[in-house]
């Protein structure tokens, strides 16, 4: 009965949206509809602690539909959380697709970027301390957006110090379903990729939010770290999943038995 009621409500909702769509297209031009949509998004964003970006929502939906359909169970690990924008997107998508057992791990210095050194220093847009958001501020934003904090664990510190076997023993992560790498720099990405190997399973999605940083140069940033890591770990195969936004890319991991 409950299932039937849900189906009925969702088909009424769909018909309602189709009707609104039809009316809007009759009354307004394409450009006017875009303008109206952008105004509505601005109003929505002004009420939230983070900026809602439609194309990111689309990407998160695709990712979580895949996890749901392929029954890939596991946790969400994000390396570089800053003020929690992508972390909250992931939490919300997991709730939307009913992935109730997923736990959420937030790794960050909570002091912003480290000193920019070596090949990372060749492009001038990154600065030490950039994206500095305190852990308390990050948690406050999560709370404001109704994230269940009992499902969240923060791992505070520089990756080259915290991403150790000792940390692994203290965390209850079995496998990862999504690994979000959003730490911008080559030197930050290297320890992240070495740390995640034990958590991979067939179907884990690895997301690189800064794939096309450094002018998209494959010898810099996350692209370089990923290529070198795949070379060090020949048993790990990947195929490209979706590109998103201006700089993001993602991959599905394949591990044969
Ligand atoms: C671009 S921000 C992350 C943005 C975030 N995912 C969002 O959607 O709002 C990059 C983050 O990576 C963290 N980070 C970069 N390198 C790090 C390192 N070596 N150790 C710890 N944290 C690091 C910074 O503190 C910063 O919060």
Quick structural gist:
The chain is an alpha/beta fold and 257 residues long. The chain has two domains: 13-52; 54-255, Rossmann fold, CATH 3.40.50. The protein has helices at 2-27, 30-46, 54-69, 85-96, 135-144, 159-162, 165-170, 186-196, 221-232, and strands at residues 75-79, 104-108, 152-156, 176-181, 205-208, 237-244, 248-254.
Overview of this protein structure:
With 257 residues, the protein is of the alpha/beta class. The protein has 2 domains: 13-52; 54-255, 3-Layer(aba) Sandwich (Rossmann fold). Helix content is 44%, strand content 16%. The protein has helices at residues 2-27, 30-46, 54-69, 85-96, 135-144, 159-162, 165-170, 186-196, 221-232, and strands spanning 75-79, 104-108, 152-156, 176-181, 205-208, 237-244, 248-254. The chain has a 7-stranded mixed β-sheet with strand order 3-2-1-4-5-7-6, sandwiched between helices. Strand 1 (75-79), helix 4 (85-96) and strand 2 (104-108) form a beta-alpha-beta unit. The longest helix has 26 residues, at 2-27. It is globular and about 55 Å long. 32% of the residues are buried. The mean pLDDT is 91. S-adenosylmethionine binds next to helix 4. The site of S-adenosylmethionine (SAM) has 19 residues, from helix 4.
